[in-house]
Amino acid sequence: MILKNQVAIITGASRGIGKEIALTFAKEGARVVLCATNRERLSQAAQQIETESGVKPLFFTFDIREAKEMSEVVKKTLDTHTRIDILVNNAGITRDQLLVMMPEEDWDAVLCVNLKSVFLFTKAVAKAMIRQRSGRIINVSSVIGITGNAGQANYAASKGGIIAFTKSAAQELGKRNITVNAIAPGFIETDMTAPLENQAKEDVRKRIPLGRLGVPNDVAQVALFLASKQSSYITGQVIRVDGGINM
Ligand code: NAP
Question: Which residues share a beta bridge with 87?
Answer without folding.
Answer: 9, 137
